[in-house]
Amino acid sequence: MTKQLKPATLCVQGGYKPKNGEPIEVPIIQSTTFKYDNSEEMAMLFDLKKEGYFYPRLQNPTNDAVAAKICALEGGSAAMLTSSGQAANFFALFNIAEAGDHVVASSTIYGGTFNLIAHTMRKMGIECTFVAPNASLEELDAAFRPNTKAVFGETIANPALAVLDIETFAQAAHDHGVPLIVDNTFPTPVNCRPIEWGADIVTHSTTKYMDGHGCGVGGAIVDAGRFDWMAQGDRFPGLTQPDESYHGIVYAEKFGLAGAFITKATSQLMRDFGSIQSPQNAFYLNLGLESLHVRMPQHCRNGLAVARFLEASDKVSVVRYPGLESDPDYTLVQKYLPNGTCGVVSFDVAGGRADAERFMAALKLCAIETHVADARSCCLHPASSTHRQMTDGELVRAGISPSMVRLSCGIEGTDDLVADVAQALETM
Predict the structure, then answer these.
(1) Where does residue 308 rank: exposed (0-12), middle (13-18), buried (19+ CB within 10 A)?
(2) Which residues contact 391 (CB under 8 A, 6 or more apart)?
(3) How far apart are CA 228 and CA 356, in angstroms?
(4) How far apart are CA 381 and CA 107, in angstroms?
(5) Hey, which of 59, 114, 133, 153 would disulfide with 162, CB 3.0 to 4.6 Å?
(6) β-pairing, 316-320 with 219-223?
């Protein structure tokens, strides 16, 4: 029986196993071309009869090594890297939903993902019903339709910081014969492994904590490898019926539960959309992953300390940090995230939007950036930036107010961050 390695060990040594005389770091295979001795061998690659590489728009050895590490961290069966977190979420959904289909999604998700599902995918003929992240089974059941193909949510919502009740969402999804897809970007697998709570597919924006240093944009998809596509009959024809673009191959039959989803996403979607992560970015990502288990506890310590300070300030009207005992999702945190949540704190400045802008401008250690979940602390005003495309009503349902500030606590000294927040509040 193979011993299950701890997340810390997987962060450092997972995925890539150098042989005698090989480099200890994942090699950067910066090549557009792979040579073969005969055309028959290449034909077998194109027909998915043999494993290997023929064009980096689909796969690259560097990327696959890093994807294998993320797969091990999440406890999945197969994984792939994408060019961004947006690409990962799009691929995860579009791999099983097509024109005429429907998905159920949590309403408190990242604004870009909301726009992707609510507007762009709707233009492609896929409709969505949004529900609260703490919806009951009865409320979830009411959202399903006969053509529903997936359920989607974020472990910790960006920037509302609502915690998804993963088990309840998984039960509802499975009761209706569809998979649960969970974006696990904020907690990372260091603090939560959604697959252990019933999720079937996990996505990441690797641009955030996994990279952790603002070096490269990227995303990842991990398949748990246990959803039985064939048991659902005609519900998932892309996986259970012949793919004419690959000579009639049936992914669920040929690659089984463990490999069907990722193989299809690679051979179809990556082939046609080309949203590949660069090997250079994958290399940077791997360096970030090696310290992920060390950084996340400090992010959480800083986030909790800043949240507690803000909660005690009369210049702040609302603080959202799921690690606070006063947070409405604290009970869910004890269940799903007992080791910590993340370093992001969302709060409303009592004086409104104008004071929120003054507060952010006065910060010295926290830069105003369109970024989050980085080693360096940063902040932004979601309503006018990352969620600017949403209507007022959509913002309310997403848990975002005009005066909300999203503060991402890095790994700086805790006392220094609290002091910076304190002096910025004094300017209001």
Answers:
(1) middle
(2) none
(3) 49
(4) 19
(5) 133
(6) unpaired
- Token pair belonging to 180: 């649960």
pLDDT at 388 over 60: no
CB 249 within 8 Å of CB 237? no
Distance CA 301, CA 247 (A): 54
Q: Count CB atoms within 10 A of the CB of residue 55.
A: 15
Q: Select from 2, 320, 275, 332 the least CA-distant residue to 135.
A: 332
Distance CA 3, CA 404 (A): 45
d(CA 20, CA 108): 49
Q: What is the DSSP letter of 129?
A: E
- CA nearest 69: which of 78, 82, 60? 78
**What residues form DSSP beta bridges with 220?**
81, 204
Domains observed in the chain: 10-286 (3.40.640.10), 293-426 (3.90.1150.10)
What is the Cα–Cα distance from 289 to 65, expressed in whole angstroms?
12
Count of Cβ atoms closer than 10 Å to residue 127 Cβ: 16
Q: Is 233 left (phi over 0), alpha (psi -120 to 50) or beta?
A: left
- 164 forms beta bridges with none
**pLDDT class for 300, splitting at 50, 70, 90?**
very high
Catalogue the E-assigned strands of 239-351: 316-320, 344-349
To 10 degrees, what angle do helices 279-290 and 292-311 make? 70
pLDDT (0 to 100) of residue 1: 35
Predicted confidence at residue 262, as pLDDT, reads: 98
Q: Which residues contact 13 (CB under 8 A, 6 or more apart)?
A: 5
CB of 345 closer than 8 Å to CB of 310: yes
Burial class of residue 392 in the structure, from the number of CB atoms within 10 Å of its CB (0-12 exposed, 13-18 middle, 19+ buried)? exposed
Strands (DSSP E) found in 339-403: 344-349, 367-368, 378-380
Q: What is the pLDDT of residues 151-206, one digit of tens each?
A: 999 999 998 899 999 999 999 999 999 999 999 999 999 999 999 999 999 999 99
Give DSSP secondary structure letters for 32-48.
S----S-HHHHHHHHTT
Q: Specify the pTM.
A: 0.94
